[in-house]
Write a structure and sequence with these properties.
Number of strands: 16
Strand order of the largest sheet: 4-3-2-7-14-15-1-16
Helix content: 25-40%
Shape: globular
Number of helices: 13
Oligomer: single chain
Distance between the termini: 24 Å
Structural class: alpha/beta
Radius of gyration: 20 Å
Length: 369
Amino acid sequence: MERATVFFTDIRTTPKLNLFDKLKNLLNAVEISKMIKKRDLVAIKLHFGERGNLAYVRPNLIRKIVDYVRSIGAYPFLTDTNTLYAGSRGDSVSHIITAIENGFSFSVVGAPLIIADGLRGASYSVVEIGLENVKEAYIGKEIVESDFLLCVTHFKGHELSGFGGTLKNVGMGCAARRGKLYQHSDVHPIVKEKVCVGCGDCVSHCSQSAIRLKDKKAYIDPSLCIGCGECILICPNKAIDVKWSTDIVGFQKKMVEYAYAVLNNKKGRALFINFLTSISPACDCYPHSDIPIVHDIGIMASTDPVAIDKASVDMVNSREGNRASALKGGYGKGEDKFMNLYPKVNWMIQLQWAERIGLGTRSYKIVEI
């Protein structure tokens, strides 16, 4: 199989060549202007960061990407989908407020913020793919309907997939709440009876009438529940939760198949950028960001989502580990930082499965810019 090209620029700068310049050079090298057409609606998919987290890609760097897209004559918008859990990004109102508080206001980034799956995560398009684990996927409607997907990812560790890169940002990050629930669990939401006070808020909000009060506690009828997960967000007492039952292998395979669904109508119409900066040990969904496991490395860009993630994980592992971080070993160059963080998580599964279903190749060549 022919090797995919992954463009890379390191983090070193000079007074005459700052990181903004290097980012522009990277976009020139990947020839994004030949991929995006005038008047295209360009979805710039990123993670705005949970409130309290500081590891996400800086808004002023996103502004440079926005300006580049606008210079082509296209119309970019920043987007993400609402979270499955009830945090600071669980609904579109809270999500946009959090994004603005984290610096993603129009005055800074130069583009509007559009949450791709609606007010409470129920606005989605059904994409039929018929793969082994996912027959039909529930993808944020605005992402499906966009003309071009520009996926900007903060590369980091992750407790379920070993690392969080492009595949996770596309597969999990573009899924509506119903899709996220399916990836994380094979069952419907559960009620924590000790926490439930029987207020009935979930009953009145359930679109399928799948919830009723039983002995003054909420009860979810599994025969009626469609797994949208809206009740998780609605409950004022956090008494409804996901039963995190899917095994690591199943989770990664479903996540990758969701990425396949997202890119189903984006052949030749997607670009992936990984920022290997502030490489924290865990997801940006946490309300904090721990010390990076290695020093800042640089930025990658590719049209192959598998190759860019493989190149990113290889480059992180080639660096000396930060002994002040969450790493408990594996500090040496060439040692696996992510397996050290999460010994029970084989991160290679997502890359192997993605290659197997035709998302891309693990074989790559680095072109330094």
